[in-house]
Fold this sequence. Notes:
This protein is mainly α. It is built from eight helices and no strands.
Amino acid sequence: MSQVAHPQPSEQAKQPLGPVFTLPNLMSFARLLGIPLFLWLLLAQHDDVWALVVLICAGASDWLDGAVARATGQVSRLGALLDPLADRLYIAATILGLAVRGFIPWALVVILVARDVMLLALVPYLRSRGMLTLPVTVLGKAATFCLLWGFPFLLLTGQPGWLGVFCSAAGWAFSLWGVGLYWWAGFSYVAIARDLPIKETG
Length: 202
């Protein structure tokens, strides 16, 4: 969750990425490397417990890298780019893996992917306004939080007895709230983009 204070739209594309090998950035890189490990555990090994551990570590590092960046002053634009990228890739990998294993319906995959496609379509418009990305909002982080906690619970729905029932209820509660917040955040990003001033030339 490493973020920087975002400059004026016409200046964002010119701002340097900043130092690469800072502790927060290394944590984000490690989080990205966890994606293929998660998919291997979930799909090849069917080791749901260790796949769950990877997801929990990813969710914890999503908060921790931002806390470390702010505490140490190691904020950078690269960190602000890596953080939402890791979030999106984790969500994409998780919903695809869960759908393949039959934990969630494919309709949920379509709903979540459609939101990211909507935001991807904004990229040419943002570039015309001198922006590469939009600042991560509290609403967007809340949506990611719900999804990254809902999915681990869904991994345990096959457990016997009360544990499976509890994980199913908690997983779907977090996930459905996350889907709603995910789209709400998406529309808020569209509104932010719509109000951006035209890039100054010359």
